[in-house]
Amino acid sequence: MAPRTDPLSLEVIELIGTVVARYYEEYERAAAEHSLTGAQARVLGLLSLEPMPMRRIAQKLKCEPSNITGIVDRLEARGLVERRPDPLDRRVKLAAPTADGLATAADLRASLNFAREPLAELSTRERTVLRDLLKRMLGD
């Protein structure tokens, strides 16, 4: 299928790019308030959902596992993350948030207003349609 180059598609692409850029700017700012890099904040946020091995973190964040190891090392040094054996396979180490890490991840989520405030202006039906369209675009 040929890429869409009509004016409406180009406008939608530009708007999506602007939303993503603003989200990352706010995420970086929120992370800095906790003396974290954006990458550290993203790893911590991901781990706050469930502990996982470095390789899986790298897959989810689409980066090299060696980068994740360094990020987890720095989060561990700050007392926000710990490594523990995987109960299903003791050869595998899981990165897991500490109590301080969970609290920091919650603070980060609470401080991200950029996406939340505009979404609040949309009805439940509009948010549902937006969610479904985004999922469709991502092939989910």
Automatic annotation (TrEMBL):
Pfam families referenced in this protein's UniProt entry, alphabetically: MarR_2 (PF12802)
GO biological process: response to stress
InterPro entries in the record: HTH_MarR-typ, MarR/SlyA-like, Tscrpt_reg_MarR-type_CS, WH-like_DNA-bd_sf, WH_DNA-bd_sf
Keywords from the UniProt entry: DNA-binding, Transcription, Transcription regulation
PROSITE patterns: HTH_MARR_1, HTH_MARR_2
GO molecular-function terms, A-Z: DNA binding; DNA-binding transcription factor activity
Tagged with keyword DNA-binding: yes
Cited SUPFAM superfamilies: Winged helix' DNA-binding domain
Residue ranges crossing the lipid bilayer per the database entry: none
Keyword rRNA processing: no
UniProt cross-references to PANTHER family, sorted A to Z: MARR FAMILY REGULATORY PROTEIN, TRANSCRIPTIONAL REGULATOR, MARR FAMILY
Name this polypeptide is given: HTH-type transcriptional regulator MhqR
Organism of provenance: Streptomyces hundungensis
